[in-house]
Amino acid sequence: MRLHGHKLIAIDLDGTLLRPDGTVSARVKAAVRGAADAGLVVCIATGRNHGECRDILETVGHRSAGVFVGGAVVVDCGVGRTLHRSLMGADLAAGTCRLIEAAGLPAMALQEGQGEDAEYLITDGIELNEPTRQWMSLNLARIRRVPGLADQGHPHTVRVSICATGEQCAAVERTLRASYGERIVCHTLMVTAYGVKILEVFDRAVDKWTGILRVAAVRGIGSDEIIAVGDDVNDLPMIRNAALGVAMGNARPEVIAVADRVIGSNAEDGLAAFLEEWMEGAASRGGKSEAGRIEGCDVAVEGGASLEGESDAARTEGCDAEGGAAMGGRESDAA
Predict the structure, then answer these.
(1) Separation of alpha carbons 173 and 232, rounded Å
(2) Which of 64, 231, 278, 318 is the most buried (most CB within 10 A)?
(3) Cα separation values, 144 from 48, 105, 116, 122, 322, Å
(4) Please, is 332 exposed, middle or buried when counting C-beta atoms within 10 Å of its C-beta (0-12, 13-18, 19+)?
(5) Coil vs helix vs strand at 205
(6) What does the buried/exposed string (b/e) look like for 55-88 if buried means 16 or more CB atoms within 10 Å of the residue's CB?
(7) Could you give the CA distance from residue 219 to residue 103 in angstroms, rounded to a whole number?
(8) What span, in angstroms and rounded, lies between the C-alpha atoms of 185 and 167?
(9) Contact assessment for residue 215 and residue 78, using Cβ atoms and an 8 Å cutoff
(10) How far is the CA of 212 from the CAs of 12, 16, 44, 103, 330, in angstroms?
């Protein structure tokens, strides 16, 4: 399959850009920077929040927009400014925390908002299990213990999650699905580098592909000009919908099943080899992509948009597709 006509590549981190030990190889670093220099817009698309990625972004020299928290947040990485965020409905966030706490596990509510003193609010009164302590320590996350997350207002919650054993994650997911059905999206992820299993819960409107389309739109890039590379279940929407969906050799079977192409594993620098192939093609064609930089986007709360009230759908705020006007409020079908 020839690599031509593409202007943007969305790249997952864990299991894709990162090696199995969680590091960035010199070859991948050079390939990511080289592809950007050759005119390909690089869009990091990860389940991590922006703060958990800063060292990685610095390593690969990523300065453009990125998609974080599984698509709930879009950030201009050059200046660290949030361009868009999709908040969980307050009732949904509180109810999810209630069911997790009832299972005897500490809930983790990821916060995204101006002036937040903590990235995660974590249930107080329930002892932190070893997977949660390990994950928080590895990511150097700023946390605040809160008695009864089920009773909080959740004005800035974008995701609720747990770190637990595979059996516990499966049991909690069954309970949540029985209570909320299609109102939620659940991802169970294994962070191989650290041996941690995570169950993430979002509003149904959130996925990486939606976030990628926001980044593409302000650059005038169409969905038929996007490559997406990933390995896990939260990568399925972007790999299924991109013009070229690429699965890593280490990807889960369901990801490989929907991909247009399968490349080498992250242990084999499969991403680097793929980008090198693209760069060879770009060199033979000559010239660079003309996709522009995101400019003029401001967080909607700065422009006065209201997020009051709750809905079954995500509360969203950010920049519009033209890159200038702020938009706010709630969307019923899409983040």
Answers:
(1) 17
(2) 231
(3) 18, 16, 10, 6, 37
(4) exposed
(5) coil
(6) ebbebbebebbbbbbbbbbbbbbeeeebbbbbbb
(7) 45
(8) 19
(9) no
(10) 11, 17, 9, 35, 19
Amino acid at site 186:
C
Taking only the tens place, the pLDDT of each residue in 245-299 is: 999 999 999 999 999 999 999 999 999 999 999 998 866 666 554 444 333 333 3
Q: Are strands 226-230 and 244-247 parallel, antiparallel or unpaired?
A: parallel
3-state secondary structure of 215: helix
> pTM here?
0.81
Q: Give the Cβ contact number of residue 89 at 10 Å.
A: 20
Question: What is the edge-to-edge ordering of all strands in the sheet holding 65-68?
Answer: 65-68, 73-76, 81-87, 315-319, 326-327
Per-residue buried b or exposed e for 192-231, using 16+ beta carbons within 10 Å of the residue's own CB: bbbebbbbbbbbbbbbbbbbbbbbbbbbebeeebbbbbbb
The residue type of 225 is E
The pLDDT value given to residue 137: 76
Residue with token string 């991403």: 271
pLDDT for the residue 157? 96
Give the H or E element holding residue 94: helix 90-102
- Residues in the chain, total: 335
- Cβ atoms of 27 and 245 closer than 8 Å: no
Residue pointed to by tokens 């930089």: 293
pLDDT per position as a tens digit, 140-161: 778 899 999 999 999 999 999 9
